[in-house]
Fold each of these.
Amino acid sequence: MVCQPTEEQPQWGDSIASRSYKPQNKALSHTNLMNNYFNPNSVYTEEDFRHRFRMRRHVFKRLLHDVQLVNPYFRQKQDRASCPGFSPHQNVTVALRMMAYGSPADSMNETYGMSKSTCLDTLEQFCDIIVQVY
C-alpha cells in the first residue's frame, strides 16, 4: 500500500516556513530491514547481525518485546495520513544504531526513511524505557 501525501498539510505555528513534507516509503524500509536481518532466509548471517547490532538476534528480539510491552510508542500505529507508521523493528534499530555507532539523527533518513526529529524522539523514548525496564 502506497500512501499519497495529503494536499493540505497542517501548519505548526508558522514558525518554520521552510519545513516541507517529504514522502517516505516506510513499508519498503521495513521490508528491506526484515529481509536483511530478521526473516528466516535473511541476507545477513547471525554473525553479521551480531557485528552490526553489537548483540545476538535473540537479545534484540527480547529487547524489542520488552520495550513494546512497556511503551506504546514502539507499537506500530497509523500516521496522520492513515498509513502504517514505522514498525517496532525500525524504531529499535534506529535507536540502537544511533547509540552503537554514534550516528547523527539525520543520517538515518537515507536508510530507514526516518526524519531527524522522529529519530531523536525514538532515541529519547528508547533510552527512557531501557532505564525504566532494566
Note: The CA atoms of residues 32 and 112 lie 9 Å apart.
Amino acid sequence: MLLQRILTRKNSLSGVQYRDEPAIFAWELMNEPRCLSDVSGQTLQAWITEMAQFLKSIDGNHLLTVGHEGFYGPTTPEKFEVNPGDWAQALGVDFMHNSAIEAIDFASVHAYPDSWVPDKELDGKLGYFSRWVKSHIEDGEQVLKKPVLFTEFGLSSLCKDYEASHRDLLLKTMYDKIYESAKEGGAGAGAMVWQFVLEGMEEYGDEFSIIPWQRQSTYNRIIEQSCRLQILRRTEGEEKQSLSAACASL
C-alpha cells in the first residue's frame, strides 16, 4: 500500500524511516477532503476512521490530523450559520464528526475569507474570519477536547481593492485569537500562512504567496507572534525577560 511505503521510506539524507523521523511534525490524511457523492458525511467519516487507524498502526510516533477546511456538517446543524454559505454543508464533510475520531490528534482548519465570502468588503471579511477562528477554537476547547491548528489561511492579491496592508490585518486577527487562547491554556494551537516563498521562487507560488521580509510590517507581525508564544512557554524569569525585550524591539 502506498501509505505504508511512504511511512516506511528511509530519509535519503538521514537514513531514518519517515515513521521515526523527528523532523516531521505531523501527518494529515488528505488536503481539504470532500465527498460530493455522499453529502451525509458517512462515507468520508468511514474513510478517515479506517485510514487513521491504519496509519497509527504503522506510525505511533507522530501526530495525525485530517487536513480539514473546517466546514460544519450534518451532525452539527446549529453550526451551519458559521459556514460561509449553504454550499459548505453539502460537501460530504463534517468538521466536528471527522475531528472527533479517536486516532485524530488535533483538529485542522483552513480559512480563506476572500474566496468564501467574496461579496463582503474588507471589514466584513475580517469580521467573518474572526468568527470562524473563534468558533473552531471554542469547538476544540468545549467539545473535541483537542488542540486546533489553522493549517492554512491567507488573503489573495487578486482581490478587488487589494492592498498589502490588508494581509497585515488578517495576520493580526488570526494571531491575536491564537494568542488569547494560548494565554488561557486553550485549544488555539497555532496558525500557518499559505504560503511563504523565497525570492526567485515566485513562479512556484500563487496569489496567496508572501515573501515576509519584503514588507517589514508583515515580517514583524510574524516574528512577534512567534516570540510571544514562546514567552508563554518559558518558565525561567531571565529567559522571559530576554524574549520580552526582543519582542518589544520590533
Note: The mean pLDDT is 93.
Amino acid sequence: MAAAEETSKSSEAFPMKGGDGPNSYFKNSIYQRGAVDVAKQILNNEIAEKLDVEILLPSNTFSLADLGCSVGPNTFSAVDNILEAVRLKYQCQGLDSQIPEFQVFFNDHTLNDFNMLFKSLPPNRQYYAAGVPGSFHGRIFPNNSIHLFHSSSTNHWLSRVPKELVNKNCPAWNKGEIHYSNSTDEVVKAYEAQYAEDMECFLHTRSQEIVSGGLMVLIIPGRPNGTPHSKTLPNMMLQLLGTSLMEMARKGVVVEDKVDSFNIPAYYMSPQELEAAVERNGCFNIEKIENLPSPLGDGAAIGTRVLAYHMRAASEGLIKQQFGEEILDELFDLFCKKLEQKPSIFESGKGIYFLVVLMKRMPN
C-alpha cells in the first residue's frame, strides 16, 4: 500500500497539551521523563551489546526516529542518551573516524505543537533535526530508512475509540463509563481487539521502515502480567476521572449523553500481550523485555495535584473536543479531590513501565 494511502487512515489525533503554560505537557511530564531516565542504563547496555555497526558502516548517516515526541523536553533527553550510546559503540570498536552524522526525526500527530518542540531544541545538539507529522499507526518513513526507533509513553494510545463503544445498540455500548477498567466484558474485549489491531499495524509498518538488524526501543506504561484491568493503577485513575464527569453530569454541568458517548482511547497492555504481538508479526526478535523501576516512586509521593496536572496535560484535547474548554478547571479540581480521598489506590493499584528492545530480523 502506498504511504499516502496508509497515512490517510490517520487516527483520531488529540496530542498532548501544547505550549509551555501551567497546564502544558512541557511543564507536566516529569513522570514520563522519569521513565526515560530509569531506562537509560539498560538501553546503553543493549546498544553496546546488540547494535551491529558493521551493518551501518556503508552509510555515513545514522537515522533515529522518536515516535510520539510531543513538545519536549523528554524527547531531547532520550535522543541524547541514545546517540551518546551509539557514539560509544563506535569508539569501543576502534571506529572513531567512522562515527556517522546523526539525523533525528521527531514524529507526532499533525496537530502536535511542533513550534514549541522546535523552539526548545537544544542549541548545542550534535544532530540534524526534522519534524515528521503523522500517526505512527500508519506508514511515516520510506522503506529501510531508519536505524533505530524509540518511543516512550506512547504505545498505550490507541488509533481510535473501538467503534462498538459508540453504538447504542451494541452490547459494548459503554454507558456511564469513559474507559474499560470498570466495564462489561464486551467493552474490555472491544478494547483488546482494537489494541491487537493497532499493535499489529504498528509492528508491520515499522518492519518496513527499519533496516535489517536495526533496533526498536519501546518504553511502555502497562500492567503486570496477570493483573486484572480493574486493578491497574492508570485504569483506576481513569475510573476516577469518569466518576468526576458523571458527578458533573448529575449536577447538570455536562450533558450525560455526552459522557455516555465519550471514551478514552488508551489500553494498558501487559508484557505478555506485547510478546504475543511481536511473535504474531514475525519480523522482530525480542532482545530484551524488562520491568523498569518506578520512575518517581509511588503516586502518593509525587502528589495528587501533580498527577492531576499530568492527567490534564495528556487528556485535555480529548475532553475539550467532547465537552468544551469551560469545564476543564472544575473537572480536574474534582478529579484531584477524588484522588486525595482515595490514597489507597496507590497501594492497591498495580502499574508498571516496561522496556522492550526489538531487532529487525535479517533476511534469510
Note: The radius of gyration is 20 Å.
